[in-house]
Design goal:
With 256 residues, the protein is α/β, with parallel strands linked by helices. It has a single domain, classed as Phosphatidylinositol (PI) phosphodiesterase (TIM Barrel). The protein is built from eight helices and nine strands. Helix 4 runs parallel beside helix 5.
């Protein structure tokens, strides 16, 4: 998760208007990062679609979470060693066996936008590399109708996103989460500079899991941040607690 606080004052924070938590889908749903997964998620009512974007050997943008194709396809090797046409020929259901044999492949980002740009969902584009972000920025000029956010768990990429997408909400990196938590618990949060990123994602890591609280969520929101939760914090009791705290966005693995 991610969060911010407003003042030095140790008195209770002023009440804020109730937040309507938006429901999003992590990696586009199931099967992950595919046209089929995204279509199923939209049909099931997802308000936000998060997808992972990487560059191929011939500089085409494709949907893929891992650095390699090993986990989600029958092939092996890093994404950047494949041409786009080679990836598009790979079935992308190794982790979703119920969809194997249906011809579900690794898609181009342009294919995703061509098919879903006019749907009433918001997009969260997750980047692992700076070059993919720059190429995506150019591609999205062809789809002015879409509403989107960008983000990265990697601090250096997240910082670059702030400059590449100056008018877009940016989800920061894991390191930023640790710094904000440290500032909050040291009592120095009010002295911390305003966050570079307008959206602070609860990037779920076990080391920070026990540090989040309702007051921290509210403090971040009062400072202008949107709070996003994903990973372990959206399962079972954790999901219920996150909604009670009034987080802005919850990303689940599947809507069912």
């Amino acid at each position: 998760m991610r969060i911010f606080i407003l003042s030095f004052n140790i008195s209770p924070l002023a009440k804020k208007p109730a937040v309507s938590t938006m429901l999003g889908v992590h990696r586009g749903g199931s099967p992950e990062n595919t046209l089929l997964g995204i279509a199923r998620s939209i049909a099931q009512g997802a308000e936000i679609i998060e997808i992972d974007i990487r560059l191929t050997k011939d500089k085409q943008l494709v949907l893929l979470h891992d650095a390699t194709v090993d986990r989600t396809t029958p092939a092996y090797g890093p994404c950047w060693e494949f041409l786009a046409e080679e990836l598009l020929a790979l079935e992308a259901c190794e982790q979703s066996v119920e969809f194997k044999g249906l011809g579900v492949s690794v898609p181009l980002l342009s294919q995703v936008m061509d098919r879903f740009a006019n749907c009433s969902v918001e997009w969260l584009f997750d980047f692992k590399e700076k070059e993919a972000a720059k190429a995506t920025k150019l591609l999205l000029e062809n789809y002015p109708q879409i509403k989107y956010m960008v983000g990265s768990a990697f601090d250096d990429v997240a910082l670059q996103l702030h400059y590449d997408f100056p008018d877009t909400l940016v989800m920061g990196g894991v390191g930023e989460t640790f710094r904000l938590v440290a500032a909050w618990y040291s009592g120095l949060f009010a002295l911390a500079p305003d966050p570079l990123h307008d959206i602070v994602g609860f990037v779920l890591v076990k080391e920070t899991r026990g540090f989040w609280s309702r007051s921290l969520v509210q403090a971040l929101q009062q400072r202008g941040a949107r709070v996003l939760v994903c990973g372990e914090l959206v399962k079972g009791k954790e999901a219920t607690r996150a909604r009670k705290w009034g987080v802005d966005i919850v990303l689940v693995e599947n809507i069912s």
